[in-house]
Write a structure and sequence with these properties.
- It is a single chain.
- The protein is an all-alpha fold.
- It has one domain (about 25-330).
- About 60% of the residues lie in helices and about 0% in strands.
- The protein is built from 14 helices and 2 strands; from the N terminus they run ββαααααααααααααα.
- A two-stranded antiparallel sheet has the order 1-2.
- About 45% of the residues are buried.
């Protein structure tokens, strides 16, 4: 049993917890994407995030207590189903686009902000290419034949036009929020990274997504119930005037027990819902914003698969723009 060390409910984890591998960007982004997908199914968003007039450390302590129970209360094994069938999945596409955008900013004086460049690199690698080139590894289009790493202002102009006509003009803003959230999470202290690491190790958000999309919570009625349950839990925390004086373990017990009493949850699913709810609240919505940024770019990928008129028009000028990219690559 975990030991509660203070009136604020600071959780003392087992000694070997500090020896576990560090949280990776891929793990964080994947869980955030599952959260965004799950919330999209039930109709929940940033507007559902309540204001809580307590120190954020207290909220993270609650999330820490909840996630420390994972694997000890019958949590299901990893069984997520969001990853697409391509060698480079949606999480890895986002990470690769961000990585090459950052590298390009160091060598290209014409490069714009990191969020804009990430969107441009995503387009150059995974949308602005013939369909057969979208099904390859993440880095397959970095160099020849399309030199996606070496975009020019001609590409940026074409991409800006595509984003406007396709109603994706908000993509850079969404990506900016995602990048800020990722950097903040990875640079946070052990409590925060530990929460996210345990979410990833137990695939908590992936399991919730599966339950909502294909499993035990798939019906409209049950999805509406989950939405209400999360809102009630958020209100419980936000409206608890005595929260600072309560034991974190007792607060989490209250949240989990209330959900476990409902016939459509088993205890592990109830715990998963509480873990996601508390992580969403403690992060100030940042966990959801990371996922929304990834999903926004994935919509661009899906538009390429659909071969919409706007994508076809963009690709029609690809061969002419590739020559400019080739010149940049040669001059590097």
């Amino acid at each position: 049993m975990s030991v509660i060390a203070s009136v604020l409910g600071v959780l003392v984890l087992p000694a070997n917890a500090a020896e576990s591998p560090a949280l990776t960007e891929e793990e964080l982004v994947a869980q955030a994407e599952y959260v965004a997908q799950s919330f999209a199914i039930i109709g929940m968003g940033m507007s559902d995030l309540p204001e809580v007039d307590v120190d954020s450390d207290l909220l993270w302590n609650l999330a820490q207590d909840a996630t420390a129970r994972l694997g000890q209360e019958g949590s299901p094994a990893k069984d997520s189903a969001l990853a697409d069938s391509y060698p480079c999945n949606s999480t890895d596409r986002f990470i690769h686009a961000r990585t090459v955008a950052a590298a390009n900013k160091l060598r290209d004086s014409d490069a714009k902000s990191i969020d804009a460049e990430t969107v441009y690199m995503y387009l150059s690698h995974y949308v602005d290419v013939p369909s057969s080139y979208r099904k390859l590894a993440c880095e397959a289009n970095d160099e020849e034949p399309y030199y996606a790493n070496w975009i020019t202002n001609d590409d940026r102009n074409v991409y800006d036009s595509f984003l406007r006509v396709s109603d994706y003009s908000d993509a850079p803003r969404a990506v900016s929020s995602a990048i800020s959230g990722i950097d903040g999470a990875l640079e946070a202290g052990d409590t925060v990274t530990g929460v996210y690491k345990r979410l990833a190790d137990n695939d908590v958000a992936g399991s919730l997504y599966n339950a909502l999309s294909t499993g035990s919570l798939v019906s409209d009625t049950l999805q509406a119930s989950v939405l209400n349950d999360i809102r009630v839990s958020l209100s419980d925390i936000a409206g608890d005037a005595n929260l600072e004086n309560e034991d974190a373990h007792d607060v989490v017990d209250r949240l989990v027990d209330r959900l476990s009493a409902k016939t459509y949850y088993n205890r592990s699913t109830a715990l998963n819902v509480v873990c996601v709810t508390l992580s969403f609240l403690a992060s100030g919505g940042s966990l959801l914003e990371i996922g929304l940024g990834v999903l926004q770019l994935n919509l661009l990928f899906d538009s390429g698969i659909a071969q919409t008129a706007a994508v076809a028009a963009m690709i029609s000028s690809l061969s002419g723009r590739t020559s400019g990219r080739l010149m940049r690559a040669w001059e590097a």
